[in-house]
């Protein structure tokens, strides 16, 4: 498998988009830390931008990469290698290069300006979001052979998780505001990896006091090691469900 | 060497392979002919595991190949249109495939030499002409001394000299006891290299016989006429 990952990585590094992505994250992080009055504020603005851009770039990059690697995969499929190996190598190649961009572009500035647990959670969330959205992108790409359709599905997924889902949650909270919704909102959070990541980082900042009862509940759950473990567990599920289902589709389709 | 048993494949409503059963033995060159869309390429891709059949089985030396991959180290495949990653250089493609097939004991670089591919090693695959890509495909197919060669319209994009080199190579490999499957539309070429002709039509075998057998049965001197005669008789 390492052999194939090597060639996938080689291909990705040469088209320079990942390098541009790293520089973009680096500039963004350094800029935000220098603009804000305190490192906490910097982290907060960085969190919001990361949760918007990282999923978008991961999903678009992974989808286009998958379609552009079609020839590469076709060449490999006629060779004595397992199909799942080809697929997993593609996945790991993309996720590892994008995660490296996050570790360099966000990890280093965080280490310099705001070292601590919150910064660590921010970087970890970024890496998890990358793994999740690349898996979703691959799922969109194996469903359809048409590149335009695949990218369309990928963008819709991003719209849903980054924008529409929050709208739905807000709508539910307003409509059923008379009922105790703490546990319902907790469940709703688990259904969106972006929200899950946001809350995990927010609760480690001191802004959770502003979030009222729900915030207090979140704090009591996510504040403990048990809660953090659980939310990372949910994140892992978010990686594996789309990844394994897309691998299944890939193994059973014609090339 | 390869046995195809009741193989069926449909793309939506289109039936491409219809309960196809056929046997191929080693040391023969079998030419697969048939009208466009008869299922020739689909059959080759099924043997390679690139297309997964709806039903039926393919056996390689007595063992089913479905959902297996190791058997492919014994197959060299030259696709009809070679698709390669555009950014890779010829050298990298060849090195990569070699890297994947590390356990191959014999490396046959004859075609690389005869086609002068070394001089073009640093060209990008995307900048190559169709014919040069065909040469790379041919070199890769023969490189690992496989027991079976599947050549999908091998000479379609090649110049006459390169086509001649390839034909000589095919005959040379046949003598080593290999099975060589060639799909082709050029009858003179079929007559030159093949021992047997298998005709596919609408996803089923129309006839499968040796070239001399076909000529005898139809009382024709030329293979193209003989085949035209068989086709017309049935209509």
UniProtKB/TrEMBL annotation, chain A:
It holds the Pfam family ABC2_membrane_2. The keyword Glycosyltransferase does not apply. Keywords: Membrane, Transmembrane, Transmembrane helix. The chain crosses the membrane at residues 12-33, 45-70, 91-114, 120-143, 155-176, 225-245. It comes from the Bacteria. Signal peptide: none annotated. This is ABC transporter permease.
From TrEMBL, chain B:
Coiled coil: none annotated. Keywords: ATP-binding, Nodulation, Nucleotide-binding, Transport. InterPro entries: AAA+_ATPase, ABC_transporter-like_ATP-bd, ABC_transporter_ATP-binding, P-loop_NTPase. Residues 2-227 form the ABC transporter domain. Belongs to the ABC transporter superfamily. This is ABC transporter domain-containing protein. It comes from Pontibacter amylolyticus. The lineage of its organism: Bacteria, Pseudomonadati, Bacteroidota, Cytophagia, Cytophagales.
